[in-house]
Amino acid sequence: MSVNSQRQRLIKWVRRYPVIALSALALGYLLGGFSETDDGPIPQQIVITALYLFISLVPLGFIIAFLVVGRLGDLESAANKEKQSNLTYQDAFDLPSQIMHGYKLAMVTGRSPTLTGLTGDRYLSDAQAVCSENPEHIPPVAECECGFYAYKEFTDAQFELSINPGAFLLDVDLFGLGFTYKNGFRAESQVVNQLITPSRCMRCRVLPAKVFVTTYRLGYEDTTWWQWQMRCVVCSSSFKPSDKLTVEQMAQHLAVKINYSFS
Ligand SMILES: [Zn+2]
Ligand SMILES: [Zn+2]
Fold it and tell me: Is residue 246 part of a domain?
């Protein structure tokens, strides 16, 4: 029996105590404990002594029982606390109804355009996270960095965009096991709801962005990749048709809705 149910049982008996005490008094009366003459079946002295003992010992018994149960409760909660501190999933959402909606940045890279995180991992618009460090991991693993990340606040993602001008804003929902971290979530799987494009050309920053174009980038250690950006009519005019995609075509490739930002 748990400490809590022991405590509840004890409280039930305390509630019954007045009835028991009245019954004891009635019994004492019937046995002649309160009559002027000592003519009952049991000597008056014994009845009186029994009543005194009852009145003093029963409450004492309750007090002792409460002390014992209280102490057991303390020990139990101390043990629970110890167990809790061993849990690495302290921040996991145990409520499946918790909505992990957020914002993040992604680049669009590859000949065939693909969503690509700033750390270089490529993913589909509806994907399960994979751990690049440990194939045994089913992300997110608390002590690892794997899983899909997203900021809770749009403004946090916007700020990050201002220091990563080649990236796009994504509006995402995260699912499965999730952790909260300082500014957002890290979770098992992700669905990209929409890609938010800049309203201005990503090159001249003046004219309205109209079309996606891809350029060949040289990275460190001989790595090269194709990166897609949104440009205006002027800044995209020199591109071959095979290096251009309309917003609708890009939306189809990525399997994501594309919307212009308000700014
Ligand atoms: Zn991992
Ligand atoms: Zn331009």
Answer: yes
